[in-house]
C-alpha cells in the first residue's frame, strides 16, 4: 500500500488550482449574471488539458489516467462546481462513448476537438419518462430512411444541449427489444435540421450552463454517424458510465471540500457572545463530521481511480465511491449552510447554492438508490457488480471490444 500521491499528479493539481483561481473564479459570476455560456473559457480549459487526462496522446489526451482525472475534477469542483457542468460532455461519457465504440474515422473526427474544448459535447440519454430505467422506458425513435436516420421524440435533462456542436444521443431503433433496441448516434444539431433545445428553469442552478428539454422532429443523423451497431446503444453508454461515476464522485468530493473550507473560515470569523462560533462544541461537532466523511470519500474515490488505472474490477468500488461522496457532499453542504446561519441563504455566499449541486449530484449518473441496489445485490450474491468487467484503461481498449460484451 502506498498512500502517497505521485508528484506528477500533485503538479497537475497545482496547475488546475492556478487555472481555476486565475481564469475561472474571477469571471464565473459575470457569466452567471449574463446567462452566457463561457465557450472561450471551456476552450482554454481544454487547451490546458483539463478534459483529456484519461485519453491517449494520439487523440489529444495526456494519457495520465483516472487518478489524474479524479484530482483534476476534485480541484475544479472545489473552486467552482458550476464550471464542471460540462466536464462529462468534454472529457467524460460523451468522448468516452465515441472513443470506445467509434470507427477510427469517427474517433479522429470528433474526440480531439471535444477534449480540446473546441467543440461542445452532449450526452443525451434521459427522457421525461425514463431516467433510472433509461433504456426500458425510452420512447424516442430513430427511423432509417436511406442514408440517414430521422429521429422523433423528446429527450429530457440534456445538459449543454442548447450549445452543443457534437453529442451522443440514444434512441430506439427497435421498440420491442427493450435495452437491446437502443442505438447510439453521434449528433450534430447545428448542422442538421429537426433539433430544438429549450433550457429548463432549475432553482439555484447555473444560468451559464443550462440543462435542456430537447424536441426532435425528424432530426437528421447520417448513417455514418451511428455509433456501433443498431442495438448496441445501451451497452456503449453503460460502459462509459463506469468512469462517469468516478467523475461524479470526484466532483462531489471537491464540492464537499469547498463546503468544509467555507464552514471552517466562517466559524473562525463569525463571533457570537464575544467568541468565534468555532469555539462552540456543536459547531465543532459539524466540523468533525465533515472532516471525517471527506477523508473517507477521498480514500474511496482515489481507490476507484487506482482500480480503473490498473484495469482491476471497478464497478462495485465506483458505485461505493459515488454513493459515499454524494452523501458526503449533501451532508457538508447542509452543515455549511447551517453554520452560516441566516447568511447561508444570501446569494453572495456560495454555500447558499452549493446545496442544490449536492442534491443534483446525489441523483445524477445513477441515483443514490441505484448505487445502493448495485452494492447490495453484489453483497447478497444476486448480481455481482463486476460481472461485466471490461478494460477501463483507455490505452488498451480495442474499439471492437464493446461488440463482444
Ligand atoms: C441538472 C441535471 C442535469 C442532468 N444532465 C443529464 C444529461 O446531460 N444527460 C442525461 O441523459 N441525463 C441527465 N440528467 C438526468 C439524470 O441522470 C436523471 O435525473 C437521473 O438518472 C434520475 O432519473 P429521474 O430523474 O428520471 O428519476 P427516476 O428514475 O424517476 O427516479 C425517481 C426516484 O426513484 C428512485 N428509484 C428509481 N428506481 C429505483 C429502484 N429500482 N429502487 C429504488 N428506488 C428507485 C430514484 O433513486 C429516485 O429517488 C440530468 C439531471 C439533472 C437534474
TrEMBL record:
<feature type="region of interest" description="Disordered">
    <location>
        <begin position="385"/>
        <end position="405"/>
    </location>
</feature>
<protein>
    <submittedName>
        <fullName>Acyl-CoA dehydrogenase</fullName>
    </submittedName>
</protein>
<dbReference type="InterPro" id="IPR037069">
    <property type="entry name" value="AcylCoA_DH/ox_N_sf"/>
</dbReference>
<dbReference type="InterPro" id="IPR009100">
    <property type="entry name" value="AcylCoA_DH/oxidase_NM_dom_sf"/>
</dbReference>
<keyword id="KW-0274">FAD</keyword>
<dbReference type="InterPro" id="IPR013786">
    <property type="entry name" value="AcylCoA_DH/ox_N"/>
</dbReference>
<feature type="domain" description="Acyl-CoA dehydrogenase/oxidase C-terminal">
    <location>
        <begin position="231"/>
        <end position="379"/>
    </location>
</feature>
<comment type="similarity">
    <text>Belongs to the acyl-CoA dehydrogenase family.</text>
</comment>
<feature type="domain" description="Acyl-CoA oxidase/dehydrogenase middle">
    <location>
        <begin position="123"/>
        <end position="215"/>
    </location>
</feature>
<dbReference type="InterPro" id="IPR006091">
    <property type="entry name" value="Acyl-CoA_Oxase/DH_mid-dom"/>
</dbReference>
<dbReference type="InterPro" id="IPR046373">
    <property type="entry name" value="Acyl-CoA_Oxase/DH_mid-dom_sf"/>
</dbReference>
<dbReference type="Pfam" id="PF00441">
    <property type="entry name" value="Acyl-CoA_dh_1"/>
</dbReference>
<dbReference type="Pfam" id="PF02771">
    <property type="entry name" value="Acyl-CoA_dh_N"/>
</dbReference>
<feature type="compositionally biased region" description="Basic and acidic residues">
    <location>
        <begin position="393"/>
        <end position="405"/>
    </location>
</feature>
<dbReference type="InterPro" id="IPR036250">
    <property type="entry name" value="AcylCo_DH-like_C"/>
</dbReference>
<keyword id="KW-0285">Flavoprotein</keyword>
<feature type="domain" description="Acyl-CoA dehydrogenase/oxidase N-terminal">
    <location>
        <begin position="7"/>
        <end position="118"/>
    </location>
</feature>
<dbReference type="InterPro" id="IPR009075">
    <property type="entry name" value="AcylCo_DH/oxidase_C"/>
</dbReference>
<dbReference type="Pfam" id="PF02770">
    <property type="entry name" value="Acyl-CoA_dh_M"/>
</dbReference>
Amino acid at each position: 500500500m502506498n498512500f502517497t500521491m505521485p508528484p506528477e499528479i500533485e503538479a497537475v493539481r497545482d496547475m488546475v488550482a492556478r487555472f481555476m483561481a486565475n481564469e475561472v473564479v474571477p469571471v464565473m459570476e459575470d457569466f452567471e449574471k449574463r446567462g452566457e455560456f463561457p465557450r472561450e473559457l471551456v476552450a482554454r480549459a481544454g487547451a490546458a488539458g483539463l478534459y483529456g487526462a484519461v485519453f491517449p496522446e494520439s487523440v489529444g489526451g495526456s494519457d495520465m489516467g483516472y487518478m489524474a482525472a479524479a484530482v483534476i475534477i476534485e480541484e475544479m469542483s472545489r473552486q467552482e462546481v458550476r464550471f464542471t457542468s460540462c466536464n462529462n460532455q468534454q472529457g467524460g461519457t460523451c468522448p468516452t462513448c465515441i472513443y470506445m465504440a467509434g470507427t477510427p474515422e469517427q474517433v479522429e473526427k470528433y474526440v480531439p476537438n471535444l477534449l480540446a474544448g473546441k467543440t461542445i459535447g452532449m450526452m443525451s440519454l434521459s427522457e421525461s419518462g425514463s431516467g433510472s430505467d433509461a433504456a426500458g422506458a425510452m420512447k424516442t425513435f430513430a427511423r432509417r430512411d436511406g442514408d440517414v436516420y430521422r429521429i422523433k421524440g423528446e429527450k429530457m435533462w440534456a445538459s449543454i444541449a442548447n450549445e452543443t456542436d457534437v453529442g451522443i444521443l440514444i434512441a430506439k431503433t427497435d421498440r420491442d427489444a427493450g435495452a437491446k433496441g437502443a442505438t447510439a448516434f453521434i449528433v450534430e444539431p447545428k448542422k442538421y435540421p429537426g433539433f430544438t433545445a429549450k433550457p429548463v428553469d432549475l432553482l439555484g442552478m447555473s444560468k451559464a450552463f443550462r440543462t435542456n428539454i430537447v424536441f426532435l422532429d425528424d432530426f437528421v443523423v447520417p448513417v455514418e454517424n451511428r455509433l456501433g451497431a443498431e442495438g448496441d446503444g445501451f451497452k456503449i453508454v453503460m460502459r462509459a458510465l463506469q468512469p462517469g461515476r468516478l467523475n461524479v464522485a470526484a466532483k462531489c468530493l471537491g464540492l464537499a471540500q469547498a463546503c468544509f473550507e467555507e464552514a471552517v473560515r466562517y466559524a473562525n470569523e463569525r463571533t457570537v457572545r464575544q467568541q468565534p462560533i468555532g469555539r462552540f462544541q456543536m459547531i465543532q461537532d459539524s466540523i468533525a463530521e465533515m472532516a471525517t466523511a471527506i477523508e473517507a470519500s477521498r480514500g474511496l474515490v482515489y481507490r476507484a481511480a487506482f482500480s480503473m488505472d490498473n484495469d482491476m474490477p471497478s464497478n462495485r468500488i465506483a458505485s461505493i465511491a459515488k454513493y459515499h461522496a454524494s452523501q458526503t457532499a449533501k451532508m457538508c453542504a447542509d452543515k455549511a449552510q447551517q453554520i452560516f446561519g441566516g447568511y447561508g441563504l444570501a446569494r453572495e455566499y456560495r454555500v447558499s447554492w452549493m446545496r442544490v449541486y449536492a442534491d443534483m449530484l446525489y441523483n445524477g449518473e445513477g441515483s443514490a438508490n441505484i448505487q445502493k441496489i448495485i452494492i447490495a445485490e453484489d453483497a447478497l450474491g444476486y448480481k455481482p457488480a463486476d460481472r461485466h468487467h471490461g478494460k477501463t484503461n483507455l490505452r488498451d481498449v480495442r474499439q471492437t471490444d464493446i461488440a463482444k460484451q
